Amino acid sequence: MVENNPKEMSEDRPWLSWICDSQSAEELEKKYDNWADTYDTDVSKDWSFMPNNIAKTLSQLLPQKDLAILDAGAGTGLVGEALAKEGYVNLTAIDLSEKMLAIAQEKQVYKSLYQGNLEDQSLFADSVDFDVIITAGVFAYAHAGVEVLNNLFRFLKKKGIFLLTIREDYRQQMQAALKRLPWKLISEERFPIYDEAKLMYLLAFQKKA
Ligand SMILES: C[S@@+](CC[C@H](N)C(=O)[O-])C[C@H]1O[C@@H](n2cnc3c(N)ncnc32)[C@H](O)[C@@H]1O
Fold first, then answer.
1. Atom 9 of ligand 1 has which residue's CA nearest to it?
2. Could you give all domains of the chain from N- to C-terminal order, each with its CATH number?
């Protein structure tokens, strides 16, 4: 867990600092459990473009619709919904928060849903791997960091694609880890988020063969 905290308090988005103030996975899980019922509404203004963008970017990179896709930190399933609209059918969700996942399940777009911590080394059996791994809104303060990145990488097939969103300041913190992995950056998009000065990146890496 990364404990550095940007303390971004905004009257419009009180949840942003509340969620980034978490000190442990247990605390984060409880907060997301409490937030689950209003999450989709609360984030719609700032975030709804991103799941759609992810799905569009993926369909340009890998148009085949039966690829095994892991939505890691799936939350309420906004990314799964967008992927399903693009025609992707083989989706797995995993998240810390049972309540967020319960909402994702209602959307009926995932083949399987699991509750778990992405830091957990035994998240999946060693034999499990995915063509695509997506983390949207997961690499962030008090959420996931290098440990999660390295752990998820193990479950990505050779030549598989890892799509992640990351804010500019957090990307700088994770830059060394992102560069160290045997993969190639194949797509980079950036969007202003929360205010014009803050940039969120959508990055796609392809694992080497
Ligand atoms: C900002 S939400 C994003 C949810 C969804 N991907 C979206 O785009 O709306 C972050 C999600 O990541 C999950 N999460 C954060 N750290 C996690 C971890 N270490 N293991 C599993 N899930 C985690 C949270 O429970 C939360 O649902």
1. 78
2. 14-207 (3.40.50.150)
